[in-house]
Amino acid sequence: MQLNDYPDVLTVKDIQSILGICASKAYELTRSGEFYVLRIGPLIKIPKQSFLQWLNGSYN
Fold it and tell me: Where is the Helix-turn-helix domain (predicted)?
């Protein structure tokens, strides 16, 4: 799957798939503060734009 094929709001499973990492590493990344994460109760949502900026090294 290409990055353009992912939805505008990513899940932890999407992050796992994109980076090829295990669930625990993906959850660790969401807690790192490296990119914007929205927590809605038990759900974790990541805006794709924020994640891609981090991935490309340009997240502020």
Answer: 9-57
* Helix H or strand E segment including 17: helix 12-19
Strand-pair category, 9-10 with 38-40: unpaired
Q: What is the pLDDT of residues 30-56, one digit of tens each?
A: 999 999 999 999 999 999 999 999 999
Q: Where in the chain are the domains?
A: 3-55
The reported pTM is 0.86
For the chain, the first-to-last Cα distance in angstroms comes to 27
Which CATH number describes the domain made up of 3-55? Answer: 1.10.10
Contacts (Cβ under 8 Å, ≥6 apart) of 48: 3, 6, 7, 8, 9, 10
